[in-house]
Amino acid sequence: MDKDKLIQRLMTTFLEELEEHVGTLNRDLLALEKEADVKRRAELLQTLFRTAHSLKGASRSVNVGLVESACHQLEEILEAARDGAMVLGPDLFALLFGTADAIEEAGMRLREQQDLSSAPLAAILPRLEAAASRSALEAPRSAVAPADPPRVPARAAKSEPVAAVKAEREKRLPKPDPKEWEGEAPAEPVEEARQGPRPPTSRPPSKERPAEAAPEPAQAATVRVAADKLDAFLARNGELLVARRRVQSRAEDLTALREQVAHWAAEWRGMEKALGKWLERDGPGPHGSTALREPASEGLRVPRRVGAVLGQTGDRLRHLEKGLDRLAANMAGDYRQLKQAADALEDEVRRVRMLPFADACQGLDRMVRDLAQAVGKEVELVVEGGAVELDRSVLEGLKDPLRHLVRNAVDHGAEPPDKRRKAGKPPQARIVVTAVFRGSQVEVSVADDGRGIDREALREQLRRKGLPEPADDRELMSAIFRPGFSTARIITDVSGRGVGLDVVKSRVEALHGTVELTSVPGQGTRFTLGVPLTLTTLRALLVEAGGQTFALAGTNVQKLVRISADDLVSVAGREMLALGEVPLPVASLAETLGLTARESASAGRKKPTAIVAAGEKRMAFVVDELLAEQEIVIKNLGARVRRARQISGATILPSGRIALVLNAANLIRGALGQGAPVRLAALTEGAAAEAKKRILVADDSVTTRTLEKSILEAAGYEVVAAADGQAAWELLQDGGADLVVSDVDMPRMDGFSLADAVRRSKRFAEVPVVLVTARESEGDKARGAEVGANAYLVKSAFDQKNLLETIAQLL
Question: How do residues 544-558 score in pLDDT, each as one tens digit?
Fold first, then answer.
């Protein structure tokens, strides 16, 4: 392979490693700057040396000479400090941190394929060379130092050609086959760099092999995968989960069909013997035909072919029954295997995507150090719960909010050392970033022990902007999340521009999370972020509004109620829901989304309503139907719908329909911004025009089911039919209904059990149930009343007018 092409191919890997090595340099330099223990400082210096060496080798493999030279000078400085030939003071630490920043900036330039000749790293390189030269000059004075622990001799001085260092290194490497040399030589340093900085060992390396570390215990092999490939893998897994649910639905349909055929076969077997007695063979009939006929007194003659077909019907039914049994069993087995494989794959995909919370905190310690020095404060950053794992997408979404909150804590919260002493506090402020599990969510908090939020400054800003001043302290504190709002007395490059906390709120809400704020004057401030573990799957409530299906995150739904006009009060021209608590604003979900809500003509009929919360905001959204609560797989809709702020994604339902996932915070914000009261004409007397009602019919007899369906459709109802009670219950959960008409004697779930399930359901407790059955005993009628049936009609006295009048009365 051409060497230039190989280097180009390795550049992407190199840039990823560069980012990791810069993070390691920052982390260990921060630890070294604070560390007082001599042994621990030696270990940190050794680790830093190895990091610089690994990055140097990787830079050489892709011909990035500027980064290679800088890392070489870092090696010289760190080696001298490790051997006691140089003391790392504030100036040298500033130089080392500046070098790490410059290397990171050089990586950004390389990503954009820019030239490095004008990069900050090129400007800082002479200072590194000067510091490395001083370390070389001071090295002989350290020769009198004890030999325990043994020192590593200095590497080549800056005047030594890089080629000589490379030649010396190659002497220690096995000679490759000349035919295989091309491509292998540059690959070796990358493999060395890919290993990353090795952990410190108890003994420094020997003088003969200064660049190599002691052997390490075997570790699990790792592989780098691009984020977009992982996302594509996850998307395919989501499609597999949807397919699994559809296969489950098909298996249930097949089971229902098998049971229907079994019922049919049982009825035929009961008639077969009677039919055989009723028919008898006769000789040739007219025109020479053979016939099956009744006894002669009846005078009915049946062609022999009809008799043969009737005789074969039982065999065919038995064959069909066995075939369906076999197919249903095989399909159930296949579904179990598919479910096991899909569930295992889903678990593994989730594990692959889960990353420790500490990854989101990388760089915060360096930011706190630099910012505290810039404003003359002493600040300690503590991260707790770093091992808590979150989905990569959630973790990426938390990085910016965390940086904003920690920056604000340093600038606004922490006081200067002299003021802290006067307040009886230690001179060093403390910022604690914590992650803990809270059920299905992760609670992330950023707390400081600083001055707290100045309430009077908040009120002053509100007055200055002409905004109302809330009397409630919680509402007053929430004003700090307004765009362009700041309590800083002066605008600086750190604060005062009114950006930050509004970004925190919007970013967290985009993660289906919440933000809460508590602050005690003189004691500190705490921001608490509640976010889900993952954004790929979500427990959601499915609702219907404006003829479409929508999903609301279960964490945002506080309560499900049914309301009437009597539950509403008017406050300042807006309809509010009064249910014994603080009145809540009410809105139609369909109208909030720009759709037309479905009207109901029944006076006094209650409307299903979801109480939705986002942070401290709560609102009641009236919907057409409450459909189901289930686990959904969220798919991103891309940049084309970025302006639809109330929509955060979509999911494919087992039925194949698409449901849009709603962003609760933006939904509430949009509804409140509309300023118009919800129109609940369906809840008042003299309501809107007649709407088409949906009736669910359940009967295992095809004839009866078809008859009832025809009668009801002719009367103007929308009718869906089910072959038994279990299928009816599933259809009710999936699409809802205004009324249920059911037989009693059915397979899987009988009519009594269906009525009982409807009454026990919170969603469908008020749906009327009409039982139409052949059971005429008073005990059966009493049983129907006990399970909550609204009407009990006997088939022997069936009258379609009676059925229609009963349904009209119940609706």
Answer: 888 888 988 888 888
DSSP code at position 200: P
Helices (H), 151-198: 162-171, 181-194
Instruction: From 367, 409, 257, 252, select the one nearest 321 (Cα to Cα).
Output: 257
Report d(CA 94, CA 76) in Å as an integer.
16
Name the CA dihedral angle for 719, 725, 731, 733, rounded to a multiple of 10 degrees: 130
Which residues are bridge partners to 568 per DSSP? 577
- Residue 162 has φ and ψ, to the nearest 5°, of -60, -35
Over residues 578-601, mean pLDDT: 76
pLDDT for res 527: 92
CA distance 185 to 6: 11
Give dist(CA 809, CA 208) in Å, integer: 99
Looking at residue 486, what is its pLDDT? 60
Terminal C-alpha separation, the chain: 78
Buried b (16+ CB within 10 A) or exposed e, 170-191: eeeeeeeeeeeeeeebbeebbe
More confident residue, 135 or 679: 135
Confidence band, pLDDT 50/70/90 cuts, at residue 792: confident
Q: Which residue in 106, 26, 24, 94 sits closest to 65, CA to CA?
A: 106
Q: Is 692 exposed, middle or buried (0-12, 13-18, 19+ CB in 10 A)?
A: exposed
Q: Three-state DSSP class for 609? A: strand
Angle between helices 751-760 and 725-735 (to 10 degrees): 30
pLDDT one-digit tens code per residue, 389-400: 888 888 888 988
pLDDT at 517 over 80: yes
Own/partner contacts of 699-702, CB < 8 Å, gap of 24 or more, are 699/723, 699/742, 699/743, 699/746, 699/772, 700/260, 700/263, 700/724, 700/743, 700/745, 700/746, 700/747, 701/743
Backbone angles phi, psi at 143, to 5 degrees: -65, -25
pLDDT of residue 189: 37
* Cα 611 to Cα 23, 556, 620, distances in angstroms: 45, 8, 4
What is the average pLDDT across 254-280?
Answer: 75
How far apart, in Å, are the Cα atoms of 617 and each of 356, 376, 474, 500, 571? Answer: 31, 39, 11, 20, 17
| Bond prior to 149 in cis (omega within 30° of 0) | yes
CA distance 729 to 741: 12
| 121-145 pLDDT tens trace | 998 999 988 888 876 555 544 333 3
Cα(68)–Cα(118) distance, integer angstroms = 16
Residues with Cβ < 8 Å from 608, sequence gap 6 or more? 543, 560, 561, 562, 622, 623, 624, 625, 626, 763
What is the SS3 assignment for 662?
strand
What confidence tens digit (pLDDT) does each residue in 173-206 have? 334 333 333 333 333 333 333 333 333 333 333 3
